[in-house]
Fold each of these.
Amino acid sequence: MKGTLKARYELDQMTATSTVSVRAGDLNLRASMTDATLVNGPSLNGLALAVEKPGSFIIDYNVPKKDLRFQFMNTVRVLEKQLKLNYVHFKGDSRTVLDGTLVLDSANKVSANHTIGSRNCKLKYTFLHNGLTTIEPSYDFTKNAWDFSISKRVYGDDVLKAMYQTSSKNVTLEWSRNSKSNGSFKVLASLNLADDHKMPKLSAESTWDFEM
């Protein structure tokens, strides 16, 4: 049995989520809770259950909303290139999302995300330079706008990332670490250039993995 505890800190609030998973043959059984599940006594608020077969499918059930989410994954070969496909269906609002990533080589890949029956479509190109720097321009057809991000791995487990959304004029700087020995955390600072006050928003996330 494995578990994960994640805490998020902001200037005016603190939230926490926890996940417990159990291996049952080829399947993972998972239960996720937020702080709303336990604050003021046990409740169903923020509780979600899931059944997962890694690389094949995930079925999520949101207990308070009584809503199901189905996700199916597959990988095929197209012209000797690897194409990763995701099919996600949200039962509650009858929404279906198709997501695909075409791996051109070890440094280049193209991703597309489309909500069936809508104009919601996003296209992203990912370029990995020297195995350390990742450049990702993306285009949102709904907003008719570009987004850009660049990240660089430093000191082994640390990643520095900068993101800019042209539609909202939002700039985000992120410092993250994902290390089994040194722990995992993420620190974010975001600033909206359209805001007259120009005050950045700060937040931090910490993640702990454990076995029971």
Note: The chain has a mean pLDDT of 91.
Amino acid sequence: MNGQAHSDPLVITLIIEEWGVRRILVDSGSSVEVLFYETFKRMELSDDILVPSTYRIYGFNGTVTIPKGEVTLRVSDRGGYLDTLTTFCVVDVTSPYEAIIGRPWIAGIKGVASSYHQRLRFPTYKGIAEVVGDPQAARQCMQADAHINEERRVRQRGEKKKAKESKVAEELQKVISQAVMAYEAQGSEPS
């Protein structure tokens, strides 16, 4: 691997409905295949083909994403060894990836994914075929993801600070109102 770190995620290119989709994260921890809405639109697909989804997606950090719907699309490799219909959950969230291929799809092709070796291997009628990962795309996605997460953290800190300032202002207003009422009550008492 030319001395590079072996901790890069496995990011591959596959053909989805005639489109070369370059930044596909192979995530054996994911129980669903995901197509990001931005990619869906770039593929010139219409929302009319989306089937309502019956479930929600829970991220590892507990966040809940409600899918825009599901769509079944043809997925193939450039070598002509892989041709499968895959149901993707379409989600409208920001991601440096264009899609995520998960455990069900990997198992469906009887594949073995290795981020260490940057390979996805699977059996074919001609023997074992493989899709090689793109470490450069993986690093770019990791950097973009870190940037997206940092922006989210900054925004959340700003929202928390604003909420805290608002609460302090409310409490101060309450104290002032009580002081004014007490002062007015003192002034209206007979001497």
Note: The two ends are 92 Å apart (CA to CA).
